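Encode chain A's predicted structure.
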Amino acid sequence: MGTQGTAPTHRRPPIVLGIILVLAGLWMLGRELGWPLFAGDVLWPWLIVALGLVFWVRYIFFTPRSSDDVFWGTGAILAGGFLLAWRNGLFLSHLHGWGELWPLIPLILGLSALVQWLFSLRDWGALIFGISAGAVGAVGLAYTSGMISGVQAFKIAQFWPAILILAGIGLVLKALVR
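Encoded structure for chain A:
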């Protein structure tokens, strides 16, 4: 009696378990073949990348979708990818410690916000934060890596009020779009 008119339930395959198996297999294959990104002391950045993939899987396959998953997923993948490249001497290996690498934090957050904005075009806050944080990170990284001098960095920093202008434009656009 109770089964009439009810739709059959379909169980969703365990996506997260599948991702874990793929990542574990890649990890073990990379270690067996001696790939440098899979050396024993660089496991933890891969865990950060895996966390980012979990956020993206949640965004892609589960509802309701939140652009916050895009932000955190992108940020974790970028952070883990950078740490893998840096620890293996593939990117910015001449920089030592967070005293010189700090600009990567606002840069990664800014890039993550820009990707979030691409998935939620009406989120002007994400766009403004992405541009602002990305600019701070880019200038900071150019300075700490020796691409620009302290004088040049200071001249660029004098344009910080442009962030206020961007915030104001964002608020005006948000009010007009509603």
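The chain has two domains: 13-91, 96-178.
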